[in-house]
Specification:
There is one protein chain. With 459 residues, the protein is mainly α. The protein folds into 3 domains: 113 residues, Fumarase/aspartase (N-terminal domain) (Fumarase C, Chain B, domain 1, Orthogonal Bundle); 228 residues, Fumarase C, Chain A, domain 2; 58 residues, Fumarase/aspartase (C-terminal domain) (Ribonucleotide Reductase Protein R1, domain 1), CATH 1.10.40.30. Helix 6 runs parallel beside helix 12.
């Protein structure tokens, strides 16, 4: 397409610069995790191509060194192409090829921009196409983020919640269904529920990793593998597995790997489910700590900052609020990824950059928000006496009277107690023949929290 002006100190070249001019859309760029991943692909490819006698070892070593510097973050400011670009990510693949090529030229004593002795296409891109490199890099970055950051953060949160579940098990309070009083529950049991959500979220995420570990590399342009050595992809995947410590394997079906984003859509779905769990947990914590005097006030949250510029002494549940906003973003990202997944037209998906950006952002913010919630909020939660103090005044404890006096009689007692403000026990003493001792046993709130105890008729 002719000559194109590029800044003299740039490590990228004309193809990258054309993309900068063509896509002045936003300030969004590929993330550090993606740049690291594509650097690993280029480095491993150079080493494998040298082993296969497709690339001179001197050039391969220079490319591998340049790629390592990309992996380490030295050239992040040289990845200048907007996320909203060509749908295959070709501009970013060439951005990587040009940066690595020019740095390798510099290492070998050549002139930036000369394409000699290292050519971005003929040497850095041997056996590759944007159409298989970009989806491979997305998968690799996601694997790294989930294995090394998100799952450990979720496990940390699970452990913190489990500690609180054990600590809070003696605290008996009124349960709530439909935001109305229900039969008693232990505060620790509520937290057991939260721990169970996180545990199952980790399981869902791990299940999606089996598909994410399968990469498109080796399919080149349309999945047929034209212009690549038959052993290239497997050998590169073996190197990537060795470097990272998690499985990376060549797909058994290149045509699906390049024409769809199904594995990314599945992984995003697992992230969305985790986001929904985080929002439920964060909102429960907000409500349980509401007040402290005019709300539920059954737990006390750590005071991490003043809550108002006008109301002295006000403390807000800011950490859970932050988590809810992150959850909303992850859910929105999943919608975008779902739409992107529908854009696999024939042999290539044409919304890979935005799918990459949203998936990796979801992994990153879910990681930091989860760990922050665990450390700055959950670890410092304490119960108040409000829950235990209120439990005997709850109307739903009448449920355990049903096996003894029937549903209708129990309902009448609850209605009368609600009308007069008395306790269920006080009304039951008037309206039934049960003794105070019998009622104390039947209406024992703690027994209602253990399966098989509450509501059992007296012998």
């Amino acid at each position: 397409m002719g000559e194109f002006q590029v800044p003299t100190d740039a490590y990228y070249g004309a193809q990258t610069m054309r993309a900068v001019v063509n896509f002045p859309i936003s300030n969004l760029r590929f993330s550090r995790s993606f740049i690291r991943a594509i650097g690993q692909v280029k480095q491993s490819a150079a080493q494998v191509n040298s082993d296969l006698n497709l690339l001179d070892s001197t050039l391969a070593n220079a490319i591998a060194q340049a790629a390592q510097e990309v992996i380490d973050g030295r050239f992040d400011n040289q990845f200048v192409v907007d996320i909203f670009q060509t749908g295959s990510g070709t501009s970013t693949n060439m951005n990587a090829n040009e940066v690595i090529s020019n740095r390798a030229i510099e290492i070998l004593g050549g002139e930036l921009g000369s394409r000699d002795p290292v050519h971005p296409n003929d040497h850095v891109n041997i056996g590759q196409s944007s159409n298989d490199v970009i989806p491979t890099s997305i998968h690799l970055a996601a694997l790294d983020g989930i294995h090394n950051r998100l799952i450990p953060a979720l496990q940390h949160m699970h452990d913190q919640i489990s500690l609180k579940a054990t600590e809070f098990l003696p605290v008996v309070k009124t349960g709530r269904t439909h935001l109305q009083d229900a039969t008693p529950v232990r505060l620790g049991q509520e937290f057991e529920g939260y721990a169970g959500q996180i545990e199952r979220g980790i399981d869902r995420l791990r299940a999606s990793l089996d598909r994410i570990s399968e990469v498109a590399l080796g399919g080149t342009a349309v999945g047929t593998g034209v212009n690549t050595h038959p052993e290239f992809a497997k050998l590169v995947c073996d190197k990537l597995t060795e470097i990272n410590g998690f499985m990376v394997r060549e797909t058994t079906n290149h045509f699906q790997a390049q024409s769809s984003l199904d594995a990314i859509v599945e992984c995003s779905g697992a992230l969305k489910t985790i986001a929904v769990s985080l929002m439920k947990i964060a909102n429960d914590i907000r409500w349980l700590g509401s007040g402290p005097r005019a709300g539920i006030g059954e737990i006390e949250l750590p005071a991490v900052q003043p809550g108002s510029s006008i109301m002295p002494g006000k403390v807000n549940p800011v950490i859970p609020e932050s988590v809810c906003q992150v959850a909303a973003q992850v859910i929105g990202n999943d919608t975008t990824i779902t739409i992107a997944g529908q854009s696999g037209n024939f042999e290539i998906n044409v919304m890979m950059p935005i799918a990459a950006h949203n998936l990796l952002e979801s992994i990153d913010i879910a990681t930091t928000a989860t760990r922050n919630l665990a450390d700055q909020c959950i670890s410092g939660i304490n119960p108040t006496t409000t829950g235990p103090d209120m439990v005997q005044n709850g109307l739903a404890i009448v449920t355990t009277l049903v096996p003894h006096i029937g549903y209708d009689a129990s309902s009448a007692i609850a209605k009368e107690a609600g009308k007069t403000g008395e306790s269920v026990k006080e009304v039951a003493l008037r309206q039934t023949s049960l003794s105070e001792t019998e009622l104390d046993e039947i209406l024992d709130a703690s027994s209602m929290t253990e399966p098989g105890l509450g509501g059992v008729p007296l012998g």
